[in-house]
Design goal:
- The chain has a single domain, classed as TIM Barrel (Alpha-Beta Barrel).
- By secondary structure, the protein is an alpha/beta fold.
- A hairpin with a 4-residue loop joins strand 4 and strand 5.
- The protein has 11 helices and 14 strands.
- The chain starts with a helix and ends in an 11-residue tail after the last helix.
């Protein structure tokens, strides 16, 4: 698969619905999950895309692309329920071929329209009943054990909506991590949260059993942050740098990551410069294209579309070049988005 084709798939998405897919929620969503030429691919579901998944093959305008497509079957743990009758699928979901992912608190103090991140739909899946508001540690441990046993899950990602506490939700993440670690001792876990006010919380997450951490800023341009993330932008970049620095000390180089989104209006040269600064500090910049999907303010109110493919490829190549130069690869992370790589093209260009 050429890089340009992978970029087109990341932006244009596919028609059809692979067995493993999701709608709404935290992070990139409304996507279908496939393995293409041996690499994870989480692709937007777009009824206008020229690419179509017909259940076995990937077509372009009705013609077989010739790409090697492996279908990820619906996981068996989805058929199970807790003793309280909650479907395991409402507690955690399969991402890609072997990643178990969950949002441990599906609400966010920043979800009011004047505060909400405009690319986020974290509470929409809660409104549709496809998840539960707060995941209990014991339930997550039960689901994780089943997912490993029945479906060969090899890593887990736990993120959270931001809470009003000084820990911003990290302590519930720690409780959930400890429960999963006790149930499945060898399962690598990444946790994701905003910078906590008390940096000692980062050590609590590591002590609970987390192997890596994502502290996601999305943009290093304060003008872009105020426009796209009005609530989250009140956390100054200096706080992010303090959290990243402490996280690298606690978790180690290349076990800390942050999302950087291409297509929010940030100057691409400045985005690449910021990514290089993060890399030099031991933080993996998980560069992803902005993915418009219903349920977000960016689509429903702003009508923002996907970025230019050439821009996504250029930025991804430049960031991957510095990642390669410094020996920092996503595949070397123990768990998390960069380890999976499905929502980005960085691994396709060497990062």
């Amino acid at each position: 698969m050429s890089v340009s084709t992978r970029v087109d798939l990341a932006l244009l998405g596919i028609r059809g619905q692979p067995p493993v897919s999701r709608s709404a929620g935290a992070g990139p969503s409304d996507d279908g999950h496939l393995v293409i030429d041996g690499m994870n691919a989480a692709l937007p579901r777009n009824p206008q895309s020229p690419y179509e998944f017909d259940g076995q093959r990937l077509l372009y305008d009705g013609v077989d692309t010739g790409l090697d497509v492996a279908v990820i079957n619906r996981p068996r743990f989805y058929d199970l329920h807790t003793a309280d009758g909650v479907a395991y699928e409402q507690i955690a979901r399969l991402h890609g071929r072997d990643v178990l992912a969950t949002t441990v608190v599906q609400t966010c103090i920043r979800y009011a329209e004047d505060q909400r991140c405009r690319f986020c739909s974290i509470e929409e899946s809660l409104r549709t009943g496809s998840t539960v508001a707060v995941k209990r540690p014991a339930d997550l441990a039960e689901v994780a054990a089943a997912a490993v046993r029945l479906d060969g899950v090899r890593q887990m990602v736990m993120t959270t909506g931001t809470s009003a506490g000084r820990d911003r939700g990290a302590r519930h993440l720690a409780r959930c991590t400890a429960a999963v670690r006790a149930a499945v001792p060898d399962l690598p876990i990444q946790v994701q949260c905003e910078p906590p006010d008390d940096l000692a919380t980062i050590t609590e997450l590591r002590s609970a059993g987390a192997d890596s951490i994502g502290i996601h800023v999305e943009s290093m341009d304060d003008t872009v942050r105020r426009r796209w993330m009005p609530g989250k932008s009140t956390v100054p970049l200096v706080d992010y740098w303090a959290a990243w620095t402490e996280a690298v000390r606690v978790f180690g180089r290349n076990q800390v990551s942050t999302y950087l989104i291409v297509g929010l209006g940030e100057d691409p040269d400045e985005l690449v410069t910021s990514a290089r600064q993060l890399i030099d500090a031991g933080v993996y910049p998980f560069v992803v294209p902005f993915r418009p999907h219903p349920g977000t303010l960016a689509v429903d109110a702003d009508r923002v579309g996907a970025p230019d493919p050439a821009l996504v490829e250029k930025v991804s190549r430049q960031v991957a070049e510095h990642l390669t130069f410094t020996g920092m690869l996503g595949a070397d992370q123990r768990a998390g988005c960069a380890a999976c790589g499905a929502c980005s093209v960085l691994q396709n260009v060497g990062g």
